[in-house]
Amino acid sequence: MGKLKERKDKLNRSVITSVVLHLLLIALVIWGSFVTKSGLTGGGEGGQVIDAIMVDPNAMVENFNQQQQQQANAKQAQAQREKKAKQQEEELRQKELREQERLKAIEEERLKTEQKVEEQKKVAEEQQKQAQEAVKKAKEEQKLAEEAAAKAQAEKEKVIKEQALAKKQADEKAAAQKAAEEEKAKAEKAAQEKAAKAEAAKAESAKAEAAKAEAAKAEKAAKEKAAKEKAAKVAAKKQANEVDDLLGGLASNAPGTESGGASAAGQGGGKKSGTNSDADMDGYKAQVQLAIQAKFYNADMYRGKECLLKINITNKGTLISAESAGGDEGLCQAALAAAKQARIPAPPSDAVWRAFKNATINFKPQ
């Protein structure tokens, strides 16, 4: 719009300047037509010069017509110039409008492009931020995993050291216990031999006393039997005398019979015996072994070792007590813990229970 106004102002100044110059030219022509100098000279030396002005009406009319034509031409030229200026102004305005529209479209496109670039930049920044956060999170998780792995390794090494120390202590204790048990076994064997000798002597004495008592008892029984037989004979004799008196002496001629008898009823004793099936015993012992094995979780640590477990159960399979009777000490401790947690089945019969209720099991982890 500024350029259009500037051009319009220049055009107006040019038109005004042209009109002014034409008016001055017309004024000079008119003035020149009215003023004409003529110089007339007389003959001779005493002649005078006369100044005269001559006006030509035709020239004046012609000059006036020329002026009118020039004014008309000037007006027509001015109108054409104004029309052309308006056309140029309109064209320039349209051109400027088109230019403004083009610039506006370019600006809108630029703004759209900038907005799109800004959005893409924001998206890229957000993606970069998310990627950085993901990397950071992954590093933190990796660090936590490494720390957990290091902690687990340290715990594992600690457990291994503790187990090795416990095994060493258990082995040392087992060795000392074994030596003590050997000494104890020797002492017990000597005591058993001594007790066996004393028991044998006591048995011989008891046997002699029993034989003596049996003899006294037999003698007493014989005496009682003889007394009973004597009493029976006296009673029979007395009854026979009474009958003889009653029959008036006929008894002396009648055959008399004495009868006396004693009958002894033999006593028979039935021998009570009870037998236990070896198959039932072995099967139930295997069930108890499996029940303890089910609660034993460190079999690999004690592979190849043995422990004697002495257990006491009810007829329902409930564990009353359990104790070690020999073997590897570490294994025995673990086996006792497993036995206390085990669900021992009930014995299949009372005979098996009576034979097994205080049994000793040779436990071998598998």
TrEMBL record:
Record keywords: Membrane, Transmembrane, Transmembrane helix
Superkingdom of origin: Bacteria
A GO MF term: toxin transmembrane transporter activity
UniProt-listed Pfam families: TolA
InterPro entries: Tol-Pal_TolA (IPR014161)
Region named Disordered: 66-97, 109-138, 165-280
GO term, biological process aspect, one: bacteriocin transport
Compositionally biased tracts (Basic and acidic residues): 80-97, 165-232
Membrane-spanning residues: 12-34
Gene3D superfamilies xrefs: 3.30.1150.10
UniProt biased composition (Low complexity): 66-79
Gene Ontology CC annotations of this record: membrane
Protein name per Swiss-Prot or TrEMBL: Cell envelope integrity protein TolA
Species of origin: Morganella morganii
